[in-house]
Amino acid sequence: MMNVISNRAFIRPLILGIALLAVSQVASVFGESLVWQTDYAAAKSTATQQNKYVLLDFTGSDWCPYCIQMDKEVFAKPAFSTFASEKLILVKLDFPRRTSQSPAEKSQNQELAKKYSIEGFPTYVLLDPSGKELAIHSGDGCSGSGFARTVDRSVPANDGLRLLETEPVGSGSGFSSYFS
Predict the structure, then answer these.
(1) Which of 12, 85, 98, 168 has its CA 20 to 30 A from that of 110?
(2) Residues forming beta bridges with residue 35, ordered by sequence position
């Protein structure tokens, strides 16, 4: 009897460990782990080096309902994760109420909010690889498709790094199709 009990005690944690490993592998395959930077200067440097656009996400991650909605309904989508890893450097500029931040991060975020005249949350700023502002979009109550349309209209048509396909919005390809 003792042998059966010890085998069960060993098998349960083993099965649980295998299940957790499988779930983490599935999550990484479906792109649910976006890399959001918090250091704006480093992100800008990386964008220049990699010739990628920068998406600034001004958010209240632990209190803003629209910020949380965008995280769940747009940024958590596997298609967005794939798109972002290929085309964007993501920067989360958070203004939390319950989570602590370093004084340097808090100061940086406040300075950037002032620079881009942020009046509410969430607000998204799209920059080209050189740091030039292309668009500002306030996400209060917006859908993923509304956010995508803003991005669609923001990138110059003659830009070699065009974020979107040449088909019009809603045609089934490009950034907008991720949210249709």
Answers:
(1) 85
(2) none
Task: Give the three-state DSSP class for 172.
Answer: coil
pLDDT in tens, 17-74: 443 333 334 444 444 578 999 999 999 999 999 999 999 999 999 999 999 988 888 8
Q: How is the chain split into domains, by residue range?
A: 1-30, 33-179
C-alpha distances in angstroms, 154 versus 13, 105, 116, 170? 51, 28, 16, 16
pTM of the model: 0.70
State how far the Cα of 51 lies from the Cα of 136, in Å rounded to an integer.
20
**Residues 101-140: b if buried by 16+ CB within 10 A, e if exposed:** eeeeeeebbeebbeebebeebbbbbbbbbeeeebebbbbe
Residue type at 4 in one-letter notation: V
Comparing 83-97, 136-150, 154-168, the range with the smallest average pLDDT is 154-168
